[in-house]
Amino acid sequence: MKKLVFGIDIGGTNTAFGLVDETGEIFGESAISTKSYMRYDDYPRYIEDLAKAMKTLMNGVNFNFELVGIGVGAPNANYYKGTVEIPSNMWKYSEEQVAAGMKEEDRIFHFADDLGKHFAGTPVYITNDANAATIGEMVYGGAKGMKNFIMITLGTGVGSGFVANGEMIYGHDGFAGEFGHVVVERGGRECGCGRKGCLEAYTSANGIKRTAFELLATMNDPSPIREYSFDQLDSAMLSQFAAKGDAIAKECFRLTGQKLGYALADAVTITSPEAIFIFGGLAKAGDLIFDPIKWYMEENMLITFKNKVKVLPSELQNKNAAILGASALVWQAQ
Ligand SMILES: [Zn+2]
């Protein structure tokens, strides 16, 4: 009988899921809203409705199959404990609950157990979205057969996953691989984590825009960027302007690639990867971002590792990477 697994991607707006086979082919996809279950008290109903929607999707498949497992990618997920811990954008306390003394550190959801109850006997694996993308690359993408590589996801945040000796590094507590919060400039830009100078403050979707606006202040060149507000601008527009030769946009990509390239050279000294994969919106800028990343990485590279490490775009870039990554958790655990 054909074997399928569920891949579930929990985002702040939607929860998307699909049934996936071992080759990465998706047999049916669906989604429910995450946003309409934002309160702490909504969580049990969210689990029930998600399970119901998953079963509806299963019933729609017109051949017999065995459900082997369920893989979940979610923010603040702990692979070891099967929990989602203190997520910043969902299942939040009401003002009354806060006033009644309910503590932030107790806002822990036993997601794997809670969802698993609806699928008796089917194992549920959960990890954060960047780790899921990493395992997706390993099972279905360009890292197939690689034992040592690094995955960098450039989006609203900067995520990462480290694979060493063929295994995902989860670390002592399950939260390893927070490369986005490596400090690349002491006392630099304020980061969402409350510290200063993190890589994420320079190379996330907002980070590159912050660079663009700094350059508007320090460079004299005329530029179409000057016509836009911070909220109107995005990295896709910056790559269009750069491709047309706009000096400020080009400088913006050079500086972003420099920050990332220098930081990656440091990461290489720790795990000696065969390759580094880049995933996410900014990676779509192609050579505009890859050229400076590679150049500055090599410039800062310890001689032992010079010209040995490939920097590649993720092969899941234009596929349903979030669902595939989550589903890959199950195949990897087999
Ligand atoms: Zn940070």
Describe this structure in words.
By secondary structure, the protein is α/β, with parallel strands linked by helices. The protein is built from 10 helices and 13 strands. The longest helix has 25 residues. Helices cover 35% and strands 21% of the residues. The strands form 3 sheets. Strands 3-2-1-4-8 form a 5-stranded mixed beta sheet, sandwiched between helices. α6 packs across α8 and α8 crosses α9. It has 2 domains: 148 residues, Nucleotidyltransferase, domain 5; 168 residues, ATPase, nucleotide binding domain (Nucleotidyltransferase, domain 5). Bound molecules: zinc ion. The site of zinc ion has 6 residues, from loops.
In short:
This protein is of the alpha/beta class and 334 residues long. The protein is built from ten helices and 13 strands.
